[in-house]
Amino acid sequence: MPRSGDLAQRRATLEDEWSRVIPGLSSPGSLRRAGRVLSREVADSWARSLASVDPARTHAPESSDGAAHHRWNGSPLRGPVDGLADELRSVADDAGFVTAVTDASGTILWTCGGRTMRRRAERVNFAPGGRWDEEAMGTNALSLALRTGRPSTVFSAEHLVTALHGWVCYCAPIHGPDGRVLGVLDLSTTWDRSHPLAMATVRGLASAVEAGLRTGTSGAPLPADAPALRLTCLGAEDAVRAGARLRLRPRQLEILTLLALEPEGYAPERLRASLYGDRPVTASTLKAEISHLRRALGGTVATRRYALTAPVSCDAVDVLRALRSGDTGTALRLYRGPLLPRSQAPGIEEWRTCLEVAVREAVLTSDRPEHALRYGERAPYDTEVHRHALRLLDAGDARRAIATGRLASTA
Predict the structure, then answer these.
(1) Residue 252 CB contacts under 8 Å (≥ 6 apart), including other chains
(2) 94 by DSSP, 3-state: which?
(3) What is the pTM of this model?
(4) Strand 307-308 and strand 167-175: pairing?
């Protein structure tokens, strides 16, 4: 992370460059001198911006129609952003950012952040309805991302407008399924909070919004008969989304399994305990794992209370559903082994035991011998199950030999 002294020195250098170059930027020589400190992209933007923007402007102009709320309601970005709203608010709150989403014109349609940062942002109309395209507000990260179609960072006095010299902004464009830029996602904060990971964060969040656009993800759950994801966690470890296998790390599979088994979700502290037990693992470590999982799933994990916001088809959940309905045969057919057999996470171990006990008890209370015989294949040393099978089988049933042989092998 940059030291505060380094950031202050960089800011001072940029302020000096701004004061020296801006007054004479109309000359080619000024642009060449600016290039020693500034990127060519920023220097060129300064030159373009001066045609329409006074560097002494105090705030962004309002959009001409004044209907940002209605435009947001009809925006294709709203559904995916709503699905990520908890994560966006968490990032803003934890790191002291203001988060914003614009449309393709550079008009802000949605923001979130802590009260103090939002109040500062509102002073320069970094708020719904504010215009942040280059023609309206000069050089800034939002306008550069819209113009280039690439992620952009603008720090302190790289901004043309002096009222923005106290800020650093990180932006990534949001592309629709057809490749068109639909808007940008922005993280902004004061220059002294500049962080090297902020750009990676905003790019990951923008990618999650784009994934939501491709899959139709929104804040509301999809119908129960249209699962977005298939999770196999009994005797195996596999997750498939839209026909493609997801490359998830073991910890991410554990998180996904726990969230599938408890759709009402987990408080952060409870999920951390379920994954790590008493190990001294920080909250930021858990947040990083959640962030990786969210990107893999296209953003369908809420954050304030960790929960899936899109349906998942899970074999363990199907087993529990069958047991609740008294369908022991279906439960046995689906129960192909212990839950995530390699996992040592306390929460997984607890659910593993719960499933094993529930299936076994269903077998022992069933009056159908085929249930005990089938379960006995996977539990060769369970004498009680083999005896139960023998009690249910008629004297002349040839299958008694199977149960008798299994029972004898346990002696």
Answers:
(1) 289, 292, 293, 296
(2) helix
(3) 0.55
(4) unpaired
